[in-house]
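Each lists chain and fold; for instance:
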Amino acid sequence: MRVVDNQSIKAVVFDLDGLMFDTEALFYVVARAAVAERGFAFTPEVMASLIGRRGEEVNAVWRGLLGADADIESFLADVRERFRARLHDVRPSTGLASLLKELERLGIPRAVATSSRRAYALDLLERHRVIHLFSFVLTSEDVTRGKPDPEVYQLAGKRFGLDPAELLVLEDSVPGLAAARASGAFAVGVPHEHSPAKCLVDAHLVVPRLDDERLLAILRRGQGEPG
C-alpha cells in the first residue's frame, strides 16, 4: 500500500454503480433473464467484463454474446425497462451512510465520477436523497475517453482546484481503479460479488466496506486527526 501523507487527501471522489449502490446485482438479475429469453447464457464472467465500461465497449460484449446480427438496441431497451421497473429494489452499499457522515464531519468535499449517463446518475442520487452531499457529478457525457482512461479523475481534480494526487478515489471495478491510479489519485477498491478483491490489482488499498477503519483512518489523518 502506498504511504499517504497526512495532508495529501483533500477531496474524495465516488464511483456510482456497484460502489455506492448495489445496482450491479440488480443489473445481473435482469440482464440474465433477458439473455435467457433469447436463448443464451449470461454468466458472471460476462457480467465482470461489463463493469465500469462505457457504452461502446459494452455493446461489443453484447454483440459477442448475442451474435453480430442481434438487435442490440432493442435488447438494451428491454434490459433498461426491466432495470428501471425494479430500481426501487436498489440499496445503498454497506457503510455508505457512515462514510458520508464522517466526510461531512471532517469537512472533506465529495464528488461522483461515473461511466453512466447523467440523467440516470442524478435520478439515483436523488432517489436516495444524497445528491446534496456532493459538490458535483461527472458522467460519461463530461468526458471524451472513458475509464480506464484517467480523464474523468483528472477532470475531477480540476473541478476541485486540486492536483489528482490530492484525491482519494473509491471504485469497485478494474477499469475504474486503473483510471484512478493513472490519474495519480489514491485508489481504494471496494469489491463485491461481481468484482472480487483478487481482480482489483490497481488499488492502493482494498477494503470490504465503505466505512472500513483503515479508510477512515487515512481520511482523519489527512485532516490532522489521530488515525
User: Anything to note?
Assistant: Confidence is low (pLDDT under 50) at residues 1-6. The two ends are 16 Å apart (CA to CA). The first strand starts at residue 11 and ends at 14. The chain is about 45% helix and 10% strand.
